[in-house]
Amino acid sequence: MRVLLTGGAGYIGAHTAVELLEQGHEVVLADNYVNSSPKVVDRIEAITGHRVRAYRADVSDRAAMEALFTEQEIDAAIHFAGLKAVGESVAKPLAYYRNNLDSTLTLLEAMERHGVGRLIFSSSATVYGTPERLPLTEEQGTGVCTNPYGWTKVMIEQILRDYTAAHPEFSAVLLRYFNPVGAHRSGLIGEAPNGVPNNLMPYITQTALGKRDHLSIFGNDYDTPDGTGVRDYIHVVDLARGHAAALGYCAEHCGVEVFNLGTGRGYSVLEMAETFARVNGVAVPYVFAPRRPGDVAACYADASKARRILGWEAVLTLEDMCRDSWNWQRQNPDGYEGA
Ligand code: NAD
Ligand code: UD1
Q1: Whose CA is nearest to atom 3 of ligand 2?
Q2: Is the separation of the CB atoms in 154 and 142 below 8 Å?
Q3: Which of 162, 78, 180 is nearest to 121 (CA)?
Q4: pLDDT value of position 241
Q5: Edge to edge, what strands does the sheet with 230-231 contain?
Q6: How many CA atoms lie within 13 A of 173 on its CB side?
Q7: Alpha carbon of 229 to those of 109, 196, 220, 296: distances in Å?
Q8: Are 156 and 96 in contact (CB under 8 A)?
């Protein structure tokens, strides 16, 4: 298939591009590089030996999308493009609603004009809000989000349900990611956050590198085995394979389907820091700090639906995640900037 990856130069998009190219698909990428670099395209090509057609374009730009869909015969789209920093979304809600909703609507309109009927959307476990029960199954309702970023995911899921109800031949797959970490084993692509990282793994890798003094562990008084927060970390390469499986599914089914993409196993912040230090033979100094507002104690997936229906499951281990994150960070201490 010829697959459009909006936001395809980003962290998850780039790994998915590699996976799809290696499975024999063609990849067309559209990114405005607001949170990535055009250098990613060269890296994807270097890993796979295949060409990527890359468009520098804002997905909200109607004319740019019209040109892309006219030039390329797209079979399916994976919509990664979006702003994703939770704290920033609280400070700049309009920018988040504008970018994330507009890009989705503009993409859907272009798909409709060009008769493209398959879409995979990057949703998030954040749509569940505070979990009612663990592990989280797809049947649990979407909850109350604590930030505008999360609400954009809930709203886009609803837009896709409404659109599919009006177009029963359309196929939309909503993938709810848990916590992606890790990097391609080549160390050529990985997560490159701007400024001080908000998420745990990039904070750990930058601490190990000496860029940060120490890791602050947000809360050690949660109702979890060691008191620190528990999350379902999933290797980004497993996640990328999940997209390939979803692509096969949406080629053969109509309607909306939701899948959790997680491992089904939770690890605590302490386990993460200690495993990272042990596997890589580096120090990760940490201190305990107050809880971060908006955090839940524990969040992990019931991943059985994806296994049953997509025939996909995560196979890479926590050790793989720690080793590959470190390999990427060491080779690229300043992300793509130093390249
Ligand atoms: P990322 O920021 O690395 O990638 C997103 C890409 O989209 C970037 O390359 C950015 O430049 C691009 N982009 C943003 N707005 C755009 C626009 N209007 N037009 C064109 N390009 C645009 O993020 P990621 O971690 O790869 O996440 C991909 C998707 O998955 C996002 O929608 C994110 O919300 C979602 N998600 C991510 C996580 C996570 O932990 N990384 C978890 C759950 C869901
Ligand atoms: C966060 C977002 C979520 C988003 C996800 C992926 C919040 C409240 N939630 O999820 O909406 O989908 O990122 O981008 O921001 N931790 C520390 N010290 C740190 C960083 C994190 O102890 O310096 C802890 C957190 O308290 C948490 C765990 O590590 O227990 C994971 O944090 P993080 O990587 O930010 O992911 P989430 O909070 O699960």
Answers
A1: 126
A2: yes
A3: 78
A4: 98
A5: 267-268, 230-231, 298-299
A6: 28
A7: 41, 20, 8, 7
A8: no
Check if 149 is active-site: yes
**Which residue among the candidates 128, 149, 203, 267 is catalytic per the annotation?**
149
Question: pLDDT, tens digit, for every residue of 261-297?
Answer: 999 999 999 999 999 999 999 999 999 999 999 899 9
User: In angstroms, rounded to a whole number, what is the distance separating the alpha carbons of residues 27 and 41?
Assistant: 11
Instruction: Give the 3-state DSSP-derived string for the chain, with helices as H, strands as E and coil as C.
Output: CEEEEECCCCHHHHHHHHHHHHCCCEEEEEECCCCCCCHHHHHHHHHHCCCCEEEECCCCCHHHHHHHHHHCCCCEEEECCCCCCHHHHHHCHHHHHHHHHHHHHHHHHHHHHCCCCEEEEEEEHHHHCCCCCCCECCCCCCCCCCCHHHHHHHHHHHHHHHHHHHCCCCEEEEEEECEEECCCCCCCCCCCCCCCCCCHHHHHHHHHHCCCCCEEEECCCCCCCCCCCEECEEEHHHHHHHHHHHHHHHHHCCEEEEEEECCCCCEEHHHHHHHHHHHHCCCCCEEEECCCCCCCCEECECCHHHHHHHCCCCCCCHHHHHHHHHHHHHHCCCCCCCC
Q: Is the CB of 60 under 6 A from ligand 1?
A: yes
Q: Which residue has the tokens 């970490």?
A: 181
Binding site membership of 337 for ligand 2 (Cβ less than 6 Å) = no
Q: Residue 261, CB half-sphere, CA atoms under 13 Å: how many?
A: 30
- Closest residue CA from atom 29 of ligand 2: 200
The more confident residue out of 144 and 306 is 306
Residue type, 334: D
Report how far apart, in Å, the C-alpha atoms of 6 and of each of 3, 185, 234 are. 10, 23, 22
State the closest ligand 1 atom to the C-alpha of 180, by its place in the atom list counted from 1: 40
pTM for the whole thing?
0.98
Q: What is the pLDDT of residues 200-234, one digit of tens each?
A: 999 999 999 999 999 999 999 999 999 999 999 99
Count of C-beta atoms within a 10 Å radius of residue 330: 14
Give residue 85 CA to ligand 1 midpoint distance, Å: 9
